[in-house]
Amino acid sequence: MDPLLTAAGDRLAAYHDRLAQLVAVDSGSRQVDGLRAAADLVQTWCLAAGMAVEREPVTDPAGTPLGDVLIARRRGAGSRRILLAGHLDTVFPPGTAAARPFRIHDGRAYGPGVSDDKGGLLAGLAAVEVLAALNLDGYGELVLVCTPDEEIGSPGSRPLLRTLGAEADVALCLECARDNGDLVSARKGVADLEVTLRGRAAHAGIEPERGANALLAAARLTVALDQLNGRWPGVTVNVGLLEAGGRPNVVADHARMLVDLRAWHTGEYEAALAEIRRLVAAPSVSGVRGELAVHAPTPPWEPGEGGHRLTELAAKVGAGIGVPVSHTATGGCADANLLAEAGAAVLDGLGPIGGADHSPHEWLDLDSVVPRVALLAGLVDLVAAVGVECHVPPHERMTTA
C-alpha cells in the first residue's frame, strides 16, 4: 500500500474521534462562545501535532466580536509557504448539536457542520500529521488557518486572509469535495446588496396623491432586477427579501430589499453591479429615493495558470495513489475567493467527500477520508517540490492584498 495511504489510515481513528468532538460543539456564525470552544479543541490537536499556534480575535465592521482566527504553523526544510484554509463556523442555530447529534450510519457521518467544514478542516490537520509521520518536510512553512466567520462572508477575517494569501505561494482550501468527488477549481463572485427606498406617507383613501409609494417602487425594482438575469453569461440576480409599508390604508413610505448578485468573471460582476446602482439611484416612482449598500463583496475566483497547474498536480498525485481526481466550478463563494484575490494560486474542495450542506441531512463519506487525506498530503509534498506559478507574483501583491 502507498505510504501516504498507510499513514492516513493510521490517523483514521483519531479523525473519527475528533470529528465527533468538534461536531458536538455548536459553532454557528456569531456564536462566539461555541466558536472559541471549537478553536480550543483544534488548538489542542495542532499543538499535539507539533505546530505553533496563535489566535487573533476578529470583529465585524460594527465592532461586534465574531470569535478567533486560529493560525497553526509548522516549519519545513524548503522555501515555499503552503496555506491550508478551513473554517470553524456553521449555519446552524444554538442547540442544533444536541438536537441532531453526531452519528454514523452506513459509512456516513451526520451532524451540524460535519461536511461544511469540520470534516474538511480536520482533514487538513490529518494531512499535516501524515507529512510529519513520513518526514516529508520539503515545504518552507505549512500554515493551517481556521476562521470563525466564513459562512457570513468573513467580514472579520478578510484582512488576515488577504495577508496570509499574499504571503503564500499556494492556498489549498479545505471545503469538502462535491458529492460526486469533484475538487473545486473556480467560484463565482458574490455581493450581498441591501436596497433602501424612502418615499412619503399619505392617507391611502383621502389623499393618496400626496404620497410616494416606496412599496410600488420596490415591486417595480424587483422586476427590473430579475430582468438582469441572462444579460451577461452566468450572472444571477435574486431578490431574496422585500419588506415594505406597515398598514393597508397608508401609502408606504419605506421599503427594504436584500439582493444576491453572483458572477463568474470580474468584468461581468462589475458591470452588473454598476447597472444595479443605476436602477436603485433612479426609482420608477416619483418622490421615492433609493440607496444601495454593498455588504461583503467577494470577487470571482478565476483560477488562472496557477490554479490550472494545481489541478494537474492533484491529478498526478491521485493517479499515483489510485484516487481519481476531477474538478468543477461552483456558484457558491468561499474564502478561496479572497485568497485568490490576494495573489495565491488556489485549489478548493480538498476535504473528504460530503453533501447536503446547510441542511439537516448534511453528511460526510467516511470511506473517503483516508484517500482524500492522502491526496492532500501528497499534493502539499509535490507542490513543495516543484512549485506553482502564483496568481499574482509576490512583488505585485502589496496593492492587491
From TrEMBL:
UniProt xrefs under PANTHER family: ACETYLORNITHINE DEACETYLASE (PTHR43808), BLL0789 PROTEIN (PTHR43808:SF9)
Domain Peptidase M20 dimerisation: 186-284
GO molecular function term, any single one: carboxypeptidase activity
Organism placement in taxonomy: Bacteria, Bacillati, Actinomycetota, Actinomycetes, Micromonosporales
Co-factor(s): Zn(2+)
A Pfam family reported for this protein in Swiss-Prot or TrEMBL: Peptidase_M20
PROSITE patterns given in the database record: ARGE_DAPE_CPG2_1 (PS00758)
Alphabetical keyword list: Carboxypeptidase, Hydrolase, Metal-binding, Protease, Zinc
Catalytic residues as annotated in Swiss-Prot or TrEMBL: 89, 150 (proton acceptor)
Gene3D superfamilies: 3.30.70.360, Zn peptidases
InterPro entries in UniProt: ArgE/DapE_CS, Bact_exopeptidase_dim_dom, Pept_M20_glutamate_carboxypep, Peptidase_M20, Peptidase_M20_dimer, Peptidase_M20A
Protein name: Glutamate carboxypeptidase
